[in-house]
Amino acid sequence: MNPIPRLHFAHLPTPIEELPRLSAALGGPRLLVKRDDQTGLAFGGNKTRKLEFLVAEAREQGADMLISAGALQSNHCRQTAAAAAKFGFKCILVLTGQAPEQASANFLLDGLFGAQIVMVADRADRDRVLKETFDKAVADGDRPYLVPYGGSSPTGALGYAFAMEEFMKQNIHADWMVFGTSSGGTHAGLVLGQRVFDFKGKVLGISIDESEDWLKEHVSKLASDASEKLGKRIGFTQAEVLANADYCRAGYGVLTEAEREAVRLFAKYEGLLLDPVYTGRAAAGLIDLVRRGFFKKDETILFWHTGGQPALFADKYSNDIAGQAKQ
Known about the structure:
This protein is of the alpha/beta class. It has two domains: 16-45 and 152-325, Rossmann fold (3-Layer(aba) Sandwich), CATH 3.40.50.1100; 47-150, Rossmann fold, CATH 3.40.50.1100. The chain has helices at residues 20-26, 47-60, 75-87, 105-112, 126-139, 154-169, 185-196, 212-230, 257-270, 279-291, 315-325; strands at 16-18, 30-35, 65-71, 90-96, 116-120, 144-146, 176-181, 202-207, 242-244, 300-305. The strands form two sheets. It has a six-stranded mixed sheet with strand order 1-2-10-7-8-9, with helices on both faces. The protein has a four-stranded parallel sheet with strand order 5-4-3-6, sandwiched between helices. Helix 7 (185-196) links the parallel strand 7 and strand 8 (202-207). Helix 3 runs parallel beside helix 4, helix 7 (185-196) packs across helix 8 (212-230) and helix 9 crosses helix 10. The chain is globular, with a radius of gyration of 19 Å.
């Protein structure tokens, strides 16, 4: 395996916990959770694993600034800003939405970490504004490194290839791994790690906002490209990528009763907090699949908790979740 630049700052290995009360409440199979909300950087989350490789690559390239983009309450941007602060990089974030009068949740934390914020009203304009921001930084004499959306590049995907190795070393059996998938980096890393580290179970991504066809095409290519960084290229096919897009029809960041219920059930039965956008939607899919009998009673299902809890405190979601909890 090729040597790969990596900075070790995540709190690893993350623990695996049983969810016995939730499993009993659902009348379903054995449920486990892999606590990647506890990776340590700025409230943790899955992007921290990716940033160990991305920030190392930025250093190797002589960068002095990290630039990235995402939604107003992006978990990825929050962790990118924190990594920049930790390792002495300047940081610019291009965020879609309208800046609130009172900063909260991830948006508040971005400012605390010293990130410069560039707002863009329409997601369709984000790529253009991101490029303009990058080009201006270069013209100003900075040496920026572009951190891709969600950290989802071949380099970023390595974070979850090695997360699979970590899981295998924990010596806990799972028939299925279930997690939220959007930009595809976590998904591609797990698919790559499944092959490289010989995980015999199945890896199922619950889409947050993309179609099944897009995920299969994008994740298979990303996993193939990431494999070259380890050594010889592995050509993954779309058939090797398992994705379910049945739960994202409402749109990105739009809460439905399914997400609200998932957040409530994990809190009520296990004292475990999910975020409303990513883990809430992925857990909603998991809960529905359990109820429909998709998983066998004697199977063990591992849910990757990819973090994001600060979004619970965004005004957009906190009043909604709190109101439902009172009912």
